[in-house]
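Today's session is about reading a structure prediction critically. Students often jump straight to the picture, but the first step is always the sequence itself: look for stretches that repeat, for charged clusters, for runs of hydrophobic residues. Only then move on to the predicted structure, which in these notes is written as discrete structure tokens rather than atom positions. Here is the chain we will use throughout the hour.
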Amino acid sequence: MTTLDPRIKTALVTGSARRTGRAMALWLAARGVRVAVHYRGSQAEAEQTRTECDALCKGAITVQGDLTDAAQAQRVVEQAAKQLGSLHLLVNNVGNYLRKDLFELKPEEWRDQLESNLYTAWYAMRAAVPIMRAQGFGRVVNLGYAAGERPTFNRLTVPYHIAKTGLATLTRSAAAAVAKQGITVNTIGVGILENSVIKPVNPPAGRFAGFEDICNALGFFLSTQSDHINGSQLDINGGWIPEQIL
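Below is the predicted structure for this chain, in token form.
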């Protein structure tokens, strides 16, 4: 089992009612971390995840809010920190995915892809960093894309890729801004998951990533040996390189 930095006692995992966020919340709780399960509309699923987290580590809570709204994001982070008693880890998992031709996108769809994948991370970090600075310690892990550190040209996912490339820039910039306060900011670059909408026919590794692969990457960034890894992206892609569609 991965040995987490013993200073990590509490965590807020955004979008953790279902899928990847839920898996990470449960993984953290199994390692003694009290988790704030965040949701926007999936209340029943969030309560179920909280119940399972609480069975693994007492003190799990739920927090609700639309993180594309700066004021709500501020409230969610502050509420999590208050109810947990501290906030040592923020996992920015929220982010929608839409495949649609560039010039068929509606303005609200364009905006949602940017806001859910990039703005939410910035808003949550903006609220969490002062708390982490005050305690002299913190970990931020963003969920990005395996091609997030280089331009990806796909007419069906333009705003998504713009947002994830922006997230890579945000990660590096934030890391430099907070490193002296004992805070690290890193990104997990997610490739193709078993439950992804679109999958290549023959992945190089012969399989797609599972939730356990994402959690293992999370554990790497939270390890006692990883406090000097800051502003980095770790791709979980099995050797897969995103297709370039002009």
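Discussion point for the tutorial: The helical segments are 19-29, 43-56, 70-84, 107-135, 158-178, 211-221.
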